[in-house]
TrEMBL record:
Transiently phosphorylated on a His residue during the reaction cycle. Phosphorylation strongly increases the affinity for substrates and increases the rate of nicotinate D-ribonucleotide production. Dephosphorylation regenerates the low-affinity form of the enzyme, leading to product release. This is Nicotinate phosphoribosyltransferase. Its EC number is 6.3.4.21. Keywords: Ligase, Phosphoprotein, Pyridine nucleotide biosynthesis, Transferase. GO terms for cellular component: cytosol. GO terms for molecular function: nicotinamide phosphoribosyltransferase activity; nicotinate phosphoribosyltransferase activity. Catalyzes the first step in the biosynthesis of NAD from nicotinic acid, the ATP-dependent synthesis of beta-nicotinate D-ribonucleotide from nicotinate and 5-phospho-D-ribose 1-phosphate. Residues 356-467 form the Nicotinate phosphoribosyltransferase C-terminal domain.
Length: 480
């Protein structure tokens, strides 16, 4: 699916205006970043880069697109002719997918002709906001599960086919082990998971017959849904009867799934029944509208759950369903010279960070496996100790700091260059591993699900000075 028309009308209105009033080759750089973390967390897991690169690299307008734009009677013939011949000339640098990213840090930066870069805004934000949101929610749930496998079960509750498919991909990046969505499983080489629904059990004369029929068809995949009628009075006892029959035939059962009721108490009782019957290796899977806080609560209560199947609250991030990433102009090339730009607001939080930037993760040389801060710098800067920095958090007190004895790792990498797309990781489980390693380097207090500690993000003194100069210049212009 080509996304060049997944663009708000005002993007075309501005592009048409640029075409009429500015040099057609005016270059610009836009940054994608966010200001607030969903669910009051401390970071977002970056995702969506692969799809962004593919879509931007193949950006063009078909004759049908041009005819539709012409029918709106808002754009000049010259502008439409320009679009009909346009091919992508924009470049991208970005954080690798799976990287934890903090407020106001560029997730990716797009540079190219102003007209063309402007027209990329909507679909780029759509991709990055959605996939990063789901990857982040997935990480939170997997963190709560303490290493227990999470199966992504959300396709039927996702907001559309693309959200289901790319949401499943993002869920794997965040830590899930499998998906029930075969579209995503086949497209992204993800293990497919799932057993039965209640309809299977209801389609037979009784629960035992349903379980026996399943075991006959799938003798090595006997995982039984035990809550259609009564978990402890019929579901688990019938499952145990079938497990014994399966074992007698030389197969070992997988386990049971509980999808309703007081899952903690049911799991405790079911575990004892399974153990007493000689099925200590049979797994208990829990599902039914779970999220990170429910998972943590179940495990805190001692519920003996081995796996979780999580759908709607993962694939929709229902508790915090929006990542409000933005696409803001950072600099323009005027008279062959790059000029930094800034958006000024009465709210200090909404003031943008100007210029062409790099993000560095800072490691204490005495503890090189632990990240201690991030620094946003201009690309022409070299970070050396001692380094004067300013806290990027607008509400920070004691904002000035000097960093010493550190190693700085640059995070933004070239992904789409004049030579074409650069090699970026596409294997979702390798991206997941990168996420685990990168998040593992963060302070533990930063990873709390409730009231996490704020991870420090700084601006270099040079960048902070540039920002203040542009704010003062904008204030002066507003008063003039």
């Amino acid at each position: 699916m080509d996304l060049q028309m997944l663009t708000d009308l005002y993007e075309f209105s501005m592009a048409n205006g640029y075409f009429a009033t500015l040099p057609h080759e005016r270059q610009a750089r836009f940054d994608v970043f966010y200001r607030r973390v969903p669910d009051n967390g401390s970071f977002v897991v970056a995702a969506g880069l692969q799809q962004v690169v593919e879509q931007v690299n193949n950006w063009h307008f078909s004759p049908e697109n041009i005819e539709y734009l012409k029918s709106l009677k808002q754009f000049s013939p010259e502008f439409l002719d320009y679009l009909s011949q346009a091919k992508n000339r924009c470049f991208i640098k970005a954080l690798p997918e799976g990287t934890p990213v903090f407020p106001r840090e560029p997730i990716l930066s797009i540079c190219g002709p102003l007209i063309e870069a402007q027209l990329l805004e909507t679909f780029v934000l759509n991709i990055v906001n959605h996939q990063s949101l789901i990857a982040t929610k997935s990480w939170q749930i997997n963190h709560a599960a303490q290493g227990r496998p999470i199966m992504e079960f959300g396709a039927r509750r996702a907001q559309g086919p693309d959200a289901a498919t790319f949401g499943a991909r993002a869920a794997i990046i965040g830590g899930c082990t499998s998906t029930s969505n075969l579209q995503a499983a086949s497209r992204f080489n993800i293990p497919a998971a799932g057993t039965m629904a209640h309809a299977w059990v209801e389609s037979f004369p009784d629960e035992l017959s349903a379980f026996q029929a399943w075991a006959k068809v799938y003798p090595d995949k006997v995982s039984l849904l035990v809550d259609t009628y009564d978990v402890l009075k019929s579901g688990v006892p019938n499952a145990i009867r079938v497990f014994k029959q399966v074992r007698a035939q030389g197969h070992e059962p997988v386990g049971i799934r509980i999808d309703s009721g007081d899952i903690s108490q049911l799991a405790i009782a079911a575990r004892k029944m399974l153990d007493d019957a000689g099925f200590k290796d049979a797994k208990i899977t829990a599902s039914n509208a779970l999220d990170a806080h429910v998972v943590k609560s179940l495990l805190d209560e001692g519920a003996p759950i081995d796996n979780f199947g999580i759908g709607e609250r993962l694939i929709t991030s229902s508790s915090s369903p929006v990542l409000s990433g933005v696409y803001k102009l950072a600099e323009e090339k005027v008279n062959n010279q790059w000029v930094p730009t800034i958006k000024v607001s009465d709210s200090r939080e909404k003031i943008t960070i100007p210029g062409n930037k790099q993000v560095y993760r800072i490691y204490d040389n005495d503890h090189p496996e632990q990240a201690v801060a991030d620094v946003i710098a201009l690309t022409d800067e070299t970070l050396q100790a001692p380094l004067k920095v300013v806290n990027s958090n607008p509400q920070a007190t004691n904002a000035n700091k000097v960093l010493v004895n550190f190693t700085a790792q640059p995070l933004l990498q070239d992904c789409l260059t004049p030579e074409g797309p650069q090699k970026i990781e596409s294997d979702v489980f390798k991206i997941q591993q990168h996420a685990k390693e990168a998040i593992g380097q963060l302070p533990e207090a930063t990873k709390r699900l409730v009231n996490p500690d704020r991870y420090p993000v700084y601006l270099t003194a040079k960048l902070a000075k540039l920002q203040e100069e542009l704010i003062a210049r904008a204030d002066f212009a507003a008063q003039d």
